Amino acid sequence: MDDSKTEANTEYEGPSKSQLKRDSHALQAMGQELVEMPEGKLQKFNLPDALKDAIYEARRLKSREAKRRHLQYIGKLMRISDIDNIQETLEKMDHQSLTYRQHFQRLEAWRDSLINEGNQAIENFLSDYPMADRQQLRNLQRQANRELELKKPPAAARKMFQYIRSLTD
């Protein structure tokens, strides 16, 4: 038995060529999702300048082949970038993902806490989100409580949820 062959087979434990190819295609697909995304959603991403420029360039391309090559380039840029933040933001936008549902539940918990607990909850919220407007939160909280007392539809609670969501996204 030749020991050099068995040593060579056990030395490298890294990803296979097929796995690298699958990872590359996944990054290209993520890049394509960013290219096809509406401008308003794309602004929510903290992208490196080179990647952002490549995405805008891909949007301008008309030729299918040129676009395909450019998506490969975007995939290459994503391999050398930190994509964890990009992936987390995409998951928040995907209504089926666990991250989105957890984020949505946190927002609902904040809303319920702000409505039911009053000033203490507002102070806690402001310590986590200092850019929030205290007066607006208090007004929405009072309106929501008034609607609950009068058994009206929860319009203020919806407005509060939208306001909280705008601060956390």
Could you walk me through the main structural features you see in this protein, from its secondary elements to its overall organization?
Helix 2 crosses helix 5 (64-80), helix 6 (84-93) crosses helix 7 and helix 7 (98-117) crosses helix 8 (119-128). The protein has 169 residues and is an all-alpha fold. The chain starts with a helix and ends with a helix. It contains 10 helices and no strands. The chain folds into 2 domains: 15-93, Orthogonal Bundle (Diphtheria Toxin Repressor, domain 2), CATH 1.10.60.30; 98-168, Diphtheria Toxin Repressor, domain 2.
Number of strands: 0
Mean pLDDT: 83
Q: Which class best fits the helix and strand makeup? A: mainly alpha
Q: What is the name of the CATH topology of the largest domain?
A: Diphtheria Toxin Repressor, domain 2
Principal-axis shape equals elongated
Q: Would you identify the CATH architecture of the largest domain? A: Orthogonal Bundle
Q: First CA to last CA: what distance?
A: 62 Å
How many separate domains? 2
The CATH class of the largest domain, by name, is Mainly Alpha
Calculate Rg over CA atoms. Answer: 24 Å
H and E order: HHHHHHHHHH
Strand content: under 5%
Fourth-level CATH superfamily of the largest domain: PSPTO4464-like domains
In terms of quaternary structure, what is this? single chain
The portion of residues assigned to helices is over 70%
Per DSSP, the total helix count is: 10
Low-confidence stretches: none
**Major sheet summary line:** none
